[in-house]
Structure formats: C-alpha cells, structure tokens
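Cross-check.
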Amino acid sequence: MDFIWLVLFIISGFTILWGMIGYPLSIILVGKCLRDASIKKNYSYEPTVTLGLC
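Predicted model, tokenized:
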C-alpha cells in the first residue's frame, strides 16, 4: 500500500513540475526549431457563409 502512495506522490510531483517548467521550456524549444517556417497568407480568400432559416 505504501508503494502505491509513493508512486502517486511521484506522478503528482512530476505533473506539477512539467506544468510549471517542462511545458514552457518545450514550447520555447519547438518555437526555436520552427522559427524558419513562414506562413503564406492569402489575402484574396473570401469565406462563404450559409444562413439556415427555419
């Protein structure tokens, strides 16, 4: 039973550390890797809209 509590404690601690430190660092690293990728914008695009009237 003590082993289960230890595992839950470790998983909880990892989850908190990942949310506070790991996730922001991973976003920064991915952003640096994908910095050269540019998005092509099409300003002539006009979306269509459909109104459903009852």
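The chain has a mean pLDDT of 89. The radius of gyration is 23 Å. Passed to J.P. for a second look.
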